[in-house]
Design a protein that fits this description.
By secondary structure, the protein is of the alpha/beta class. It has one domain. It is built from three helices and six strands; from the N terminus they run αββαββαββ. It has a six-stranded mixed β-sheet with strand order 1-2-3-4-5-6, covered by helices on one side. Strand 2, helix 2 and strand 3 form a beta-alpha-beta unit.
């Protein structure tokens, strides 16, 4: 869990404009979800993000999308972290946790994004 907190501390989240989908707010966090996501899935994700203190009262913006059977969790990261092996490994763990705890074992990819939520790098977890 300590690694997850380090991962979350290192991320920078911004409020991104544009049409990101439907917005719901949780403890200072903004969660956008696209039309490929059911509202109950989005609410379950938001509640989980509060539970693990990802949404911790600080303003953060994330987006969830689904392509085929894979969920895409998008978040803004500090420039350069998309190349940091430690944070990539932590993101893989976070993706597995999201899969297990929120999305019924379905695949979850983490998208490291720029300040406009444009994907810089996709992190695909490996299950052992």
């Amino acid at each position: 869990m300590k690694n997850l907190y380090l991962f979350l501390i290192a991320m920078i989240f911004v409020n991104c404009g544009g049409d990101r989908g439907t917005l719901i707010e949780f403890n200072g966090g903004e969660l956008y979800y696209t039309s490929s996501i059911l509202s109950r899935e989005a609410y379950k994700l938001g509640e989980y993000l509060v539970e693990v203190e990802f949404f911790d009262g600080e303003r953060k913006t994330v987006e969830i999308n689904k392509t085929d059977n894979t969920y895409e969790f998008k978040m803004v990261v500090k420039k350069g972290l998309e190349k940091d092996d430690d944070y990539i490994q932590i993101a893989k763990i976070f993706a597995v946790n999201l899969s297990d705890e929120v999305f019924n074992g379905n695949s979850v990819d983490i998208h490291f994004c720029d300040e406009y939520l444009k994907t810089i790098r996709v992190i695909v977890p490996i299950r052992y």
